[in-house]
Amino acid sequence: MSVTIPIPGALPIIFDLEDMKKEMLEALARGGHPTGRFLNGRIVVVLVTPDNGTSKDVAIGLSAIPAGLSTEEHSHPAEEIATVLSGKATIFMDDVPYEVGPGSVIYTPSMARHRTQVTNDEIYLSWWMYAPAGSESRWLPSKGFEEPKISN
Fold it and tell me: Any idea where the Cupin type-2 domain is (predicted)?
């Protein structure tokens, strides 16, 4: 079986969930991350993006939200898939609440309004993917934290 990497010369990237969880908890304790954005008490880190040459069409990242906090309601052109690594939350999608916890896999359709409210005293950690890439621009210093563009 042959596997073709979409970016010439790119190597596969393997992430370890336990290492990612540890890194995000340490970043929250420090109040920052070298390649992440600290916003309203939470941290978002983009791991894979066309912006840094690690992918062609998708973005992958991590999000850490401390107990008692919520993300702002937002939407973006990309479809999003997120997996909860730890913590519990209520995710509101177009005002409908969904209870999630470790092991939950969440699919958010393109342009769905959504926000995450942490519901217990544990830090909520999630691994997420945007497809197509582009909606991660608000988390990238190299893009000036610009809001994602809606293409017609």
Answer: 64-122
Q: What Cα–Cα distance (Å) separates residue 20 from each residue in 34, 56, 74, 133? A: 14, 22, 25, 21
* Complete DSSP assignment for 20-65: HHHHHHHHHHHT--TTEEEETTEEEEEEE-GGGTS-SS-EEEEEEE
Q: Cα separation of 62 and 64, whole Å? A: 7
Distance CA 105, CA 36 (A): 23
User: Residues 20-40: pLDDT tens digits?
Assistant: 889 898 999 988 888 788 888
Q: What DSSP letter does each residue of 72-103 carry, written as one string?
A: PPB--SSEEEEEEEE--EEEEETTEEEEE-TT
Can you tell me the distance from the alpha carbon of 101 to that of 44, in angstroms, rounded to the nearest whole number?
Answer: 18
> Domains plus CATH for the chain?
37-136 (2.60.120.10)
pLDDT digits (tens, 9 = 90+) for 84-108: 999 999 999 999 999 999 999 999 9
Integer Cα distance of 7 and 50 in angstroms = 9
